[in-house]
Amino acid sequence: MNLPIAFEKKMKHLLGAEFDKYIACYENPRYYGLRVNTGKISVEKFQQICPFKITPIPWIENGFYYDGEEVSPAKHPYYFAGLYYLQEPSAMTPASRLPIAPGERVLDVCAAPGGKATELGARLCREGVLVANDISSSRAKGLLKNLEVFGIGNMLTVSEEPGRLMDYFPEYFDKILIDAPCSGEGMFRKDKRMIKAWEEHGPEFFAKLQRSIVTQAASMLRPGGMMLYSTCTFDGLENEETVEYLLESCPEFHLVEMEGYEGFVCGKPEHTKSGNPDLTKTVRIFPHRMNGEGHFLALLQKGQATPRMKPALKSKSGGKLPDELAEFCQDVAFPLAAERLDIHGGRVYYMPDGLPELRGIRFLRTGLLLGELKKKRFEPSQALAMYLKKEEYAHTLDFTLEDDRIRRYLKGETIDVESIAGPKAKGWHLVCVDGFPLGWGKLSGGTLKNKYLPGWRDQSV
Ligand SMILES: C[S@@+](CC[C@H](N)C(=O)[O-])C[C@H]1O[C@@H](n2cnc3c(N)ncnc32)[C@H](O)[C@@H]1O
């Protein structure tokens, strides 16, 4: 592979005697990974039902390698059911090393397309709130889709400059992840276009941006909260030196040791101005040391660990579900709190609890879109289908993976379901594959009108 001379020179300085091994690994094929959505299925169960060969990624509890030259997991119905996310193995590490407890307030500052946000959301277990932001509104659309496929409802999908979010969320979050825009040196093997991009915008360009993002994010973290900074690049300026800048600008922050792995390489204080020995708590992943492409991670805490205060913001109380929604909810196994509903233009959203005033923020989604109020009826949304578990809705049509009707459903075709629904069944049904919801269908006279979201349909032949 033709790597820029300036890049090779820098890597020689960083790696010393290991440089030759590093360069040699560019001749090896890239690694393909998938991460199990533990919000929908346990790792053990997934291993039992996964129809293609997977092997565990040793430093990620719910991560697996697959052979990307042999199988296409993105075309599988389980992918449409949100059972896993396809992700390069080292990129799974940042979210796995940020401790998340259900009920926390979590911000992912640079979240699109959702590789880390989907994991953070899954670990919140429907409680608390995930704010998933990306400055690019086009990329944020993909982020929203991935969060919805994963069944994450307690979220806000936002497209803002972090500097604007600061005004709305001062010291609000328990955990923050910054997977910063970077020069992408760790992606050269996976995506050759990154080499050209590096020549146009190298580490100096990104370091400036990263410094402004980390200090803005720091002001949104509550005292005692934790922040994880990551990049997919090797350069010291974008890594140790950005962390050093944060520690000097916000002295209340300190570095925290994270759960290790034998292939992790400690950060290098000797490549910084301060030489701060704490920088050895940061971690680099190199492709010649482990079976992943490359990443950098730093885990930080603001002040001393303190338990989270009870939310200062009182949620609204009272209210009543609109009649059409109340009727639909008779078939849903959990109660909705009417005070958390937000209705705009007939669209009904279920908002996370304890939010501050949000007017003025550029949103793609606030909360879980439950559906739409139409004339005297309620139409459930695709997002609600993905959020529900099979046992939480009264009327389901559960197909096995082998049943050809599943693939036809995902393509948007009308399917005959009399054999499993019975001739008298009618109304909204949750269509599932092996017990995992895929979307809605409206049943009448033994035929299922396909309500799978047109934009999500399987386009492959
Ligand atoms: C490394 S990618 C994030 C990948 C994502 N975390 C994932 O795992 O799928 C960096 C993202 O930062 C976004 N970005 C660039 N500048 C930003 C800024 N000032 N504030 C927030 N996001 C920014 C880019 O649009 C890009 O999507």
Tell me briefly what this model is.
This is RsmF rRNA methyltransferase first C-terminal domain-containing protein. The protein contains 15 helices and 23 strands.
Description:
Belongs to the class I-like SAM-binding methyltransferase superfamily. RsmB/NOP family. Keywords: Cytoplasm, Methyltransferase, RNA-binding, S-adenosyl-L-methionine, Transferase. One of its GO terms (biological process) is methylation. InterPro entries: Methyltr_RsmF_N, MeTrfase_RsmB-F_NOP2_cat, MeTrfase_RsmB-F_NOP2_dom, Nol1_Nop2_Fmu_2, Nop2p, RCMT, RsmB/NOL1/NOP2-like_CS, RsmF_methylt_CI. GO terms for molecular function: methyltransferase activity. By secondary structure, this protein is α+β, with helices and mostly antiparallel strands. The protein folds into 2 domains: 298 residues, Vaccinia Virus protein VP39 (Rossmann fold), CATH 3.40.50; 69 residues, Archaeosine Trna-guanine Transglycosylase, Chain: A, domain 4 (Roll). The protein has 15 helices and 23 strands. Strands 5, 6, 7, 8, 9, 10, 11, 12, 13 and 16 form a 10-stranded mixed β-sheet that branches. A 5-stranded mixed β-sheet has the order 19-21-22-23-20. β17 and β18 form a beta hairpin. α10 runs parallel beside α11. The longest helix is centred in the middle third of the chain and has 16 residues. The protein starts with a helix and ends in an 11-residue tail after the last strand. The mean pLDDT is 94. It binds S-adenosylmethionine. The site of S-adenosylmethionine (SAM) has 19 residues, from α10.
